[in-house]
TrEMBL record:
Gene it is expressed from: AKAP7
GO MF annotation, one: protein kinase A regulatory subunit binding
Superkingdom assignment: Eukaryota
Subunit structure: Binds cAMP-dependent protein kinase (PKA). Interacts with PRKCA; only the cytoplasmic form is capable of interacting with PRKCA.
Record bears the keyword Cytoplasm: yes
Residues annotated as domain A-kinase anchor protein 7-like phosphoesterase: 84-281
UniProt GO cellular component terms: cytosol; nucleus
Lineage per the UniProt record: Eukaryota, Metazoa, Chordata, Craniata, Vertebrata
Protein name, per record: A-kinase anchoring protein 7
Keywords: Cytoplasm, Nucleus
Species assigned in the record: Theropithecus gelada (Gelada baboon)
Keyword Cytoplasm recorded: yes
Region entry Disordered, spans: 1-22
Length: 350
């Protein structure tokens, strides 16, 4: 009896040992098959914890560095290719200011006739609010949309009041660019806030805008870069003595009433002002009859441009083009099937 019990216990031990061995072999086989699969480094590390963790972290770190390096290269290339060709302009229309600037220009030219080539024409006087790069018609349209978005912000900022911009004194940028200064005051903070919002609005729409220099509103009246011939003939800087009499001159005030999206490269208008893609009007400006007529014509032109744009977009839609082709095809079938129609049609043409 005891011998029989011993044999039973022995058999049970053997069975348990055999089951344990089979289980270990089964798990080993599963692990071997997992290691051979492409996603082993992810699944096994997370679930079975048998992958070398430091090695995986190293690979991920290297990948992150490659991604960062690639992003930096793309950013540098984008910045390198960035050449502004459009800008937001506040046009200067006050005749008193323009007259004062012409006085300065004439006084400088009388002292050095060569500098006549460096003078900005009176129709081009403006304040640059923001520069940007628009490479094609689609980006120009995006720029127009961004400009339109600025209008409610500016009107909310001003709360129905006029933003008056007083000009006084003369300054230069590195003795290369001569400009009329914007006098100190709260209006500079308002203008700065408008410029910052414009920059943010355009960049949020994917437009490359702004530059590395801090915003300093100014009214340029001359720049040596307009004529490379000057440097070749020894004119390398603007001598402060040339404008000494106007160093504190009061030129007058301009009321902000319009902001234009202008091209730096397209042909200027007949009045000397830049090619304008679109404008926003801020508040109301006390104007004469001629100014009212010009403003009405300007708005009419902008309205026509908008309508042309809408028509073009409509005609470029695939469903519109398909409908036009279908109607032309059906009309051709009708004409071909009815000789009388064909005769009448040809008669009409003659």
């Amino acid at each position: 009896m005891e011998r029989a019990e011993a044999e039973i216990n022995s058999n049970e031990c053997e069975n348990e040992s055999r089951k344990k061995k089979m289980s270990e072999e089964f798990e080993a086989n599963i692990m071997d098959s997992l290691v051979d699969m492409p996603f082993a480094t992810v699944d096994i590390q997370d679930d079975c914890r048998i992958t070398d963790e430091p090695q995986i972290n190293l690979k991920r770190s290297q990948e992150n560095e490659w991604i960062k390096s690639d992003q930096v290269k793309k950013r540098k290339k984008k910045q390198k290719d960035y050449q502004p060709n459009y800008f937001l302009s506040i046009p200067i229309t006050n005749k008193e200011i323009i007259k004062g600037i012409k006085m300065v220009q004439n006084a400088i030219i009388q002292q050095d006739e060569r500098l006549a080539k460096a003078m900005v024409s009176d129709g081009s006087f403006h304040i640059t609010l923001l520069v940007m790069q628009l490479l094609n018609e689609d980006e120009v349209n995006i720029g127009i949309d961004a400009l339109l978005e600025l209008k409610p912000f500016i009107e909310e900022l001003l709360q129905g009041k006029h933003l008056t911009l007083p000009f006084q004194g003369i300054g230069t940028f590195g003795n290369q660019v001569g400009f009329v200064k914007l006098a100190e005051g709260d209006h500079i903070n308002s203008l700065l806030e408008i410029a910052e919002t414009a920059n943010r609005t355009f960049q949020e729409k994917g437009i490359l805008a702004g530059d590395s220099r801090s915003f300093k509103p100014h009214l340029t009246f001359m720049k040596l870069s307009k004529s490379p011939w000057l440097r070749k003939n020894g004119v390398k800087k603007i001598d402060p003595d040339l404008y000494e009499k106007f160093i504190s001159h009061r030129f007058g005030e301009e009321i902000l009433y319009r902001i234009d999206l202008c091209s730096m490269l397209k042909k200027k208008q007949s009045n000397g002002y830049y090619h304008c893609e679109s404008s926003i009007v801020i508040g109301k400006k006390p104007v004469g009859i001629r100014d009212l007529i010009n403003e009405a014509l300007h708005r009419e032109t902008m309205g026509l441009k908008s309508k042309v744009k809408q028509i073009k977009e409509f005609l470029l839609k695939p469903e519109t083009q398909a409908k036009i082709r279908r109607e032309l095809f059906e009309e051709r079938l009708i004409n071909n099937s009815n000789p009388a129609n064909a005769i009448d049609f040809s008669t009409t043409l003659t």
